[in-house]
Automatic annotation (TrEMBL):
<dbReference type="Pfam" id="PF06964">
    <property type="entry name" value="Alpha-L-AF_C"/>
</dbReference>
<keyword id="KW-0378">Hydrolase</keyword>
<feature type="region of interest" description="Disordered">
    <location>
        <begin position="460"/>
        <end position="483"/>
    </location>
</feature>
<protein>
    <recommendedName>
        <fullName>non-reducing end alpha-L-arabinofuranosidase</fullName>
        <ecNumber>3.2.1.55</ecNumber>
    </recommendedName>
</protein>
<feature type="domain" description="Alpha-L-arabinofuranosidase C-terminal">
    <location>
        <begin position="290"/>
        <end position="494"/>
    </location>
</feature>
<dbReference type="InterPro" id="IPR013780">
    <property type="entry name" value="Glyco_hydro_b"/>
</dbReference>
<dbReference type="GO" id="GO:0046556">
    <property type="term" value="F:alpha-L-arabinofuranosidase activity"/>
</dbReference>
<dbReference type="GO" id="GO:0000272">
    <property type="term" value="P:polysaccharide catabolic process"/>
</dbReference>
<dbReference type="InterPro" id="IPR055235">
    <property type="entry name" value="ASD1_cat"/>
</dbReference>
<dbReference type="InterPro" id="IPR010720">
    <property type="entry name" value="Alpha-L-AF_C"/>
</dbReference>
<comment type="subunit">
    <text>Homohexamer; trimer of dimers.</text>
</comment>
<dbReference type="Pfam" id="PF22848">
    <property type="entry name" value="ASD1_dom"/>
</dbReference>
<keyword id="KW-0326">Glycosidase</keyword>
<comment type="similarity">
    <text>Belongs to the glycosyl hydrolase 51 family.</text>
</comment>
<keyword id="KW-0119">Carbohydrate metabolism</keyword>
<dbReference type="GO" id="GO:0046373">
    <property type="term" value="P:L-arabinose metabolic process"/>
</dbReference>
<dbReference type="InterPro" id="IPR017853">
    <property type="entry name" value="GH"/>
</dbReference>
Length: 501
């Protein structure tokens, strides 16, 4: 099979906002406790943060991290997590049927993000709480001093403001599982009111309104239109969330699921622009895809833990073991985000450590990389600059849901400053390699610097603490540019990065 692509630096989708390589850490399962934070661990620093995990997060390249939830935030009192640790209350976390010790809160997380070379993206509780708690948290984090909450922060040992730029107005407020779930009208009004008060405290912040929890929600579409109708002036982004599972799907149909992500993004863009036109405004709402990943291996076990275990600190929830094929779907999802770089300005892989995560830890033991770690790391490292609209002509296969699915899923990025082009490509074929022929047009003089591949003889192969390098990327030789034409071979079921300069 042969696929053809055409690349031109003038065919631009848009500038890539580095925040599309964001992550998410929720007080859920072992993400925080025994994930990023484990005092007594051989690598723990003076604050109890695991250095081995920080090393992996820095290597992954995550410029922004959403915190502290997720469903957790809809029952969270942020005040519980600041001030002297020995006075912080232990609470019932109703979202995940867990005990919350509050050893880690906003200030500790601010320190952690600095150590991770990242920034905080904070969510406020619009479930059990509202405008008052939200504006107080902005004052606590961002006001320099001389007011009640900013002086509290200074008293707590943080003289300088955290300057948190991006704030989420609640989490999945359309979901019946959410504490304090709401109708679109109830939420739209609250988002506008809380957002207005938060921006009065600090006008420089950016706000994310909750979109639908997934495209399959019965209120999808109507929810976005109503919320934006009510809150358009106060918000800057609308959120999207998606987790793909495999169910009874075979590998080709499973890998086709990223086409649903393209559809979801395009539908939300249309709704944003519909409200914009109706209101006759210039301001555009952008997209924050602030939860995306694959999640299905652990669902049964999660249910069992949630229903049967006693209340405990950090139960092992959502500890997915990702396979090679999961990494390929995650790669296709990253490609989908890049293909919509003009409108998707923030995205967070959900989550970062232990919970549906690229990084896993053993309490007291090592930290290791899942299969999905690699496509993310490659995209974050090499997918900078401008996303290019690539002309793709690929053979296709039939699929019951998406009719015709291209074997080749691909996007290119152009980093003008470093004069580098990266092609990210997944070969969805189980049986055959895909020969890639590229017309490089104006990229005269460019050659193949490196061709990286993630593949494995077994599509269900995983990594583990015992075998952390079972699935990992390698370099492929033989890819070349001849007379302005790229020639490369993509192995069956593979993630590829072809770097040209
Ligand atoms: O990321 C795990 C959970 O998935 C989040 O708490 C929630 O927002 C989503 O349903």
């Amino acid at each position: 099979k042969t696929a053809r692509i055409v690349l031109d630096r003038d065919f631009k989708i848009g500038d890539i906002d580095p925040r599309i390589y964001g992550g998410f850490l929720e007080h859920m399962g072992r993400a925080i406790y025994t994930g990023i934070y484990e005092p007594g661990h051989p690598t723990a620093d003076e604050q109890g943060f695991r250095q081995d995990v920080l090393d992996l997060v820095r290597e992954l390249g995550v410029p922004i991290v959403r915190y502290p939830g997720g469903n957790f935030v809809s029952g969270y009192n942020w005040e519980d997590g600041v001030g002297p640790k020995d006075q912080r209350p232990r609470r019932l976390d109703l979202a995940w049927r867990s005990l919350e010790t509050n050893e880690v809160g906003t200030n500790e997380f601010a320190d952690w993000t600095l150590k991770a070379n990242s920034q905080m993206m904070l969510a406020v509780n619009l479930g059990t709480r509202g405008i008052d708690a939200a504006r107080n948290l902005v004052e606590y984090c961002n006001h320099p001093g001389g007011s009640y909450w900013s002086d509290k922060r200074r008293e707590h040992g943080y003289p300088d403001p955290h300057n948190v730029r991006v704030w989420c107005l609640g989490n999945e407020m359309d979901g019946h599982w959410q504490i304090g779930f709401k109708t679109a009208v109830e939420y739209g009004r609250l988002a506008a009111q809380a957002g207005m008060a938060m921006k009065l405290v600090d006008p420089s912040i950016e706000l994310v309104a909750c979109g639908s929890s997934s495209i399959s929600m019965p209120t999808f579409g109507e929810w976005e239109a109503t919320v934006l109708d009510l809150a358009y002036h106060h918000v800057d982004y609308i959120s999207l969330h998606t987790y793909y599972g495999k169910g009874d799907l075979d590998t080709p149909s499973y890998l086709a699921r990223s086409l649903g992500m393209d559809e979801f993004i395009e539908a939300v863009v249309s709704i944003c622009d519909y409200v914009r036109s109706k209101k006759k405004l210039r301001k555009r709402i952008h997209l924050s895809f602030d939860e995306w990943n694959v999640w299905y291996h652990s669902r049964e076990e999660d249910r069992r833990i949630m229903e049967q275990h006693a209340w405990q600190v950090a139960p092992p929830l959502a500890e997915e073991r990702y396979t090679l094929e999961d990494a390929l779907l995650a790669g296709c999802m990253l490609i989908s985000l890049l293909k919509h770089a003009d409108r998707v300005k923030i995205a967070c892989v959900a989550q970062l450590v232990n919970v549906i995560a690229p990084i896993m830890t053993v309490p007291g033991g090592p930290a290791w990389k899942q299969t999905i770690y690699y496509p993310f790391m490659h995209a974050s490292r090499y997918g900078r600059g401008t996303a290019l609209l690539m002309q793709v002509d690929s053979p296709q296969y039939a699929d019951p849901q998406y009719d015709a699915v291209p074997y080749l899923e691909a996007v290119a990025t152009y980093d003008e400053e470093h004069e580098e082009v990266s092609i990210f490509a997944v070969n969805r074929s189980q049986e055959d390699p895909l020969y890639l022929e590229g017309d490089l047009r104006c990229f005269t003089g460019y050659g193949v610097q490196e061709h990286l591949v993630l593949s494995h003889a077994d599509p269900h192969a995983t990594n583990s603490a015992e075998q952390p390098h079972n699935v990992r990327p390698g370099r492929v030789e033989g890819s070349q540019v001849r007379e302005g034409r790229l020639e490369a071979e993509l192995p069956p079921l593979s993630w590829n990065v072809i770097r040209l300069s």
